[in-house]
Structure formats: C-alpha cells, structure tokens
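Re: Re: ligand-bound prediction request (bumping)

Still looking for help on this. To restate: I need the protein modeled with magnesium ion bound, output as structure tokens. Inputs repeated here so nobody has to scroll up.
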Amino acid sequence: MNFNKDKLLLYGVTDRSWLKGDTLESQVEKAILGGITSIQLREKDLDHDEFLISAKKVKRITDQYKVPFIINDNVEIALEVDADGVHIGQSDEDIIQARKKLGRNKIIGVSAHNVLEAIMAEENGADYIGVGAVFHTNTKSDAGTVSYETLKEICNRVKIPVVAIGGITRKNIMKLSGSGIDGVAVISAIFGEQDITKASQEMHLLVRKELFK
Ligand code: TZP
Ligand code: MG
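Reply:
Sorry for the wait, this slipped through. Here it is.
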C-alpha cells in the first residue's frame, strides 16, 4: 500500500448502528464512490470470528478501489486479513507490541487527546495520530473534547500526519481551518446520512477547501 498523508484527507470510520438494513460493505463502497480516502473498520460488538468475516467482506471492496484499510483496535484481525494497518487507543505498550507484530510496512494510527500523548505516540513509532473529539459527538459517549488550540499545538509539535475526529460535519468543518490537520475522520456525518455517496462527496470538497486555503 502506497500510504501517505493525502490518504488521510477524508477518513471514513464504520459504525454498524447506522446500517438501517444495508450491509457494511455496501455502505463502505458508497462512501468510497463519494470520495473517502481511507476506511477504518470499527467493530465494537462483534466476537473474533464475526469481526474476521466483516473484515474480509470490507477488504474485498477496499482492495477493489485501492483504498487503505485500517482495523480498529485489533492487530490479530489486521494480520489475518492483511489489512493496511491498525488504529489503536492510548497505550504506549500497545504501539510497540503492535509494531512488533505488524512489522515496518503496516500503518499504525494512535488516538491522542493532548500534546504529550501525541509526542509519545510519535516517539513510539505511530504513523499518524487521531485527535478528538474536536466537537461534541453522540457517537462515542466517553470521548472527551480537545480544544482547537490543543489540536493546533499537536499539529505543530509532531511531524507525522494528524487527523481530527469527533462530531465533524459539513457545517462545522471550517472551524478546523488553520489548525494544521492533514484530514478529518468521520462516522455519522457520512454513514448516518441517507445518501452516503453524496455526503462523502460534499465532505470531500469541503475538506479540500477548508484545509488548504
Ligand atoms: N473517537 C473520538 S470521537 C469518535 C471516536 C471514534 C466518534 C466519531 O464519530 P462522529 O459520528 O464522526 O462524531
Ligand atoms: Mg505536523
């Protein structure tokens, strides 16, 4: 996988609670057609075998469109399906262990909520950092909020790419302009929409406009 920061521009994160009778892989395809540049499979309620089945189905789509495929919080699943990488939470041990298991060629993303966590993640070998929640979100009940100032400082202090996450919509994305982020990660503003392709298309145009002006 030819991964670089451009692939983080519009990072879709899946959520089964928005399926409404559709399949996850079909939703992912719709989001890709609209312009998401990476996808993270986030499965919070599946056991190992179910997660594996889901990952294989989604990977068929991401392979077809050559979109980077990241697994949330599960190095074993990432290895089993040969995903492009993993996204993990706050544990230094995790990053180092994950790197040992995945090797140099896989992507490791790490969540950070402050400057120190971001610097530590970079030192421990993360490839990118996810910072949030930058706005209020109903998607993750335990997500604390990170201020614009902190987001900006993180972007200044680390060399690896930074994506913002949490409550980002087409209406508030412009508030992230000038922070230095490389992209945004989004669940509900894409997968919670009636027309997923249209939502990601509009979001893609807005991210480009707001982040690079
Ligand atoms: N981590 C911090 S906020 C969040 C995660 C996974 C939820 C993002 O979802 P939404 O719907 O884009 O606010
Ligand atoms: Mg930076």
